[in-house]
Design goal:
Helix 2 (12-19) packs parallel to helix 12, helix 5 (92-103) packs across helix 9 and helix 12 (328-339) crosses helix 13 (367-380). The protein has helices at 3-6, 12-19, 40-51, 64-78, 92-103, 118-126, 147-153, 176-189, 250-260, 266-277, 279-302, 328-339, 367-380, and strands spanning 27-28, 86-89, 109-114, 130-135, 137-139, 142-144, 158-164, 192-196, 223-228, 241-244, 307-308, 317-322, 341-342, 344-345, 356-360. Strands 2-10-9-8-7-3-4 form a seven-stranded mixed beta sheet, with helices on both faces. Strands 11-12-15-14 form a four-stranded antiparallel beta sheet. The N and C termini lie far apart (44 Å). The chain has 382 residues and is α/β, with parallel strands linked by helices. Helix 6 (118-126) links the parallel strand 3 and strand 4 (130-135).
Length: 382
């Protein structure tokens, strides 16, 4: 087995989840998904596709009608987007891996903004890339970027700058001004930007979406943006995403999709078409529900002694810490075993998240958040 594979850490979230297996009273908030099911229209479209017998291969890059629909959806958010820049992928994480396979050779430097979902920084390492981590900094619970530090780390030797914003787990979101500075800097250094923007629609404060590199980049910039149907359309189990990339890289993306998964299932793509058809009404309503859950949870956490947290501007998570609980994995395991409360340890997102816990506030029943807060409060008194 390759050393890079042996060096990959096991999932600390799964480790905590395993400690709660078999408990009927468990309140689980550790995974990055809502407990709401996928919209009925999406499920119906997929079921009808299966009934029609659409169980065969499709084009590597996705159904032409889905790619057209994604291009129209993206154009409405970010300005004109040509279909010949869109590749449909079997999940958002697959989209990110394809981007890394396209760009990273062994020994290449990849600069990653962290803490971050561990898959992102692991992917270039799997390919033999050298990952340099630039940490966000917490201030009173809110996470911020030291832009000067990041610019200093991205040099002409940097092959890829990897940025996830809105960020999992912190909720940190890039500003338009920061994006502009980073894009211009990477143009000068010749660095590719791989932007994980799967949470772009899940922002609070009234904006339709978070600032995107797609808003300011030209079609030929060294930019690859990864998206997913998982979060904004409650389709986590469907495993469907897409890439936005320069036109002259579309053929390479098609080749890599062929070698990785051949194509996404047709019935899943039919479901995605139905999701995009209801996006204008469904997504804003979902964001309203998520915002109410965020506000409820953050207010409850702030009322607890010794807890540091700030309302995240985007995403699905409250990222918080408790005074004196510096081992997040041990604390999360204790909360599962003794209180039946399932949270993700901050250490799962790298050493920069140690001492913090991630709580997913996406739930159809806000009362679950209240019960969870009660259990956390009981855990703090032990």
């Amino acid at each position: 087995m390759r050393d890079a594979i042996q060096a990959l850490p096991g999932s600390k979230i799964r480790e905590v989840a395993n400690a709660g297996l078999g408990r009927s009273d468990l309140l689980a908030f550790w995974f990055g998904e809502s407990d709401e099911v996928t919209p009925q229209a999406v499920r119906d479209a997929a079921a009808e596709s299966l009934q029609r017998g659409e169980t065969f291969y499709s084009h590597n890059l996705g159904l032409p009608e889905l790619r057209e629909a994604i291009a129209a959806y993206a154009s409405a958010l970010h300005g004109a987007m040509d279909v010949d820049r869109i590749a449909v992928t079997s999940s958002g994480v697959s989209a990110l891996m394809l981007a890394m396979q396209m760009l990273v050779d062994p020994g290449d430097e990849v600069v990653a903004v962290v803490p971050v979902w561990p898959n992102l920084s692991a992917q270039p390492a799997i390919l033999g890339g050298c990952v340099t981590r630039v940490a966000l900094r917490p201030r009173s619970g809110a996470w911020t970027l030291d832009l000067d530090e990041l610019l200093a780390r991205v040099t002409a030797q940097t092959r890829v700058l990897l940025v996830n914003a809105p960020n999992n787990p912190t909720g940190w979101t890039l500003s338009r001004a920061e994006q502009q500075v980073l894009l211009e800097h990477c143009r000068r250094t010749g660095t590719w930007i791989v932007a994980d923007e799967v949470y772009e629609r899940l922002v609070f404060g009234g904006a339709r979406c978070a600032p995107s590199f797609s808003d300011i980049a030209t079609p030929d910039d060294r930019l690859v943006v990864a998206h997913s149907f998982s979060k904004s359309f409650l389709m986590t189990g469907w495993r469907l995403g897409w890439l936005v990339l320069p036109r002259d890289h579309l053929d390479a993306a098609g080749k890599l999709i062929e070698f990785n998964s051949s194509c996404a299932p047709v019935f899943v793509q039919r479901g995605a078409l139905a999701a995009l058809a209801i996006a204008d009404t469904f997504v804003p309503a979902l964001v309203t529900r998520l915002g109410a859950g965020r506000d409820r949870l953050v207010a409850g956490l702030q009322a607890l002694p010794g807890v540091t947290v700030a309302a995240p501007p985007g995403g699905l998570y409250a990222f918080f810490r408790v005074d004196g609980e510096d081992d997040s994995l041990a604390f999360a395991r204790r909360l599962v075993v003794e209180q039946g409360l399932g949270l993700a340890p901050g250490a799962a997102f790298g050493p920069e998240g140690e001492g913090w816990l991630r709580w997913c506030f996406a739930t159809r029943d806000p009362g679950r958040l209240d019960v969870g807060l009660q259990r956390l409060a009981a855990g703090l008194r032990l």
